[in-house]
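sry for the spam today, last one i promise. struct tokens for design, 167 residues
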């Protein structure tokens, strides 16, 4: 099954691009010489591929935070269905929220999926109460994130079994 995913990716990227991306997904701050040894490509090739990929498929170079270590212990997934006429206004409101981490437009009877972070449960409850007074919410599901099991693992080097030459 893993080979099928890689073959599908190969419609868009060649094997060297896949190796470089997988190496970067594991640790983008790692020295190119270390990545070079691990994926067995010359540093110059990795550098050139990174420059090309930065213009094509890499959307953003960023970091992943451990929110609890900076005092944000309440994380939720908020799934919303709102009145059609208010969707743009809701989107703008959510995008302005300092508690928003990720926002997605979704389907299957809902409009938005939001990942939000708060210092305390009370802050989250206040946000939802404020939100529901401003907008006509047709349906809301709130899911607390209890524990992060894995994050950003698609096209991860270890998952693609590069060390075992599965690609």
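last one done:
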């Amino acid at each position: 099954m893993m080979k099928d995913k890689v073959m599908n990716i190969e419609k868009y990227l060649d094997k060297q691009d896949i190796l470089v991306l997988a190496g970067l997904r594991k640790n983008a701050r790692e020295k190119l010489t270390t990545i070079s040894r691990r994926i067995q490509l010359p540093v110059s090739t990795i550098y050139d591929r990174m420059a090309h990929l930065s213009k094509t498929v890499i959307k953003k170079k960023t970091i992943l935070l451990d929110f609890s270590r900076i005092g944000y212990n309440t994380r939720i997934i908020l799934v919303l269905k709102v009145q059609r006429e208010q969707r743009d206004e809701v989107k703008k409101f959510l995008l302005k929220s300092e508690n928003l981490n990720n926002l997605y437009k979704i389907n299957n009877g809902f409009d938005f999926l939001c990942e939000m972070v708060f210092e305390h449960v009370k802050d989250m409850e206040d946000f939802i109460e404020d939100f529901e007074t401003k907008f006509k919410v047709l349906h809301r599901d709130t899911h607390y994130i209890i524990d992060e099991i894995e994050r950003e693992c698609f096209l991860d080097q270890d998952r693609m079994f590069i060390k075992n030459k599965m690609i």
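The beta strands are 74-82, 100-105, 112-118, 137-144. ok im logging off now
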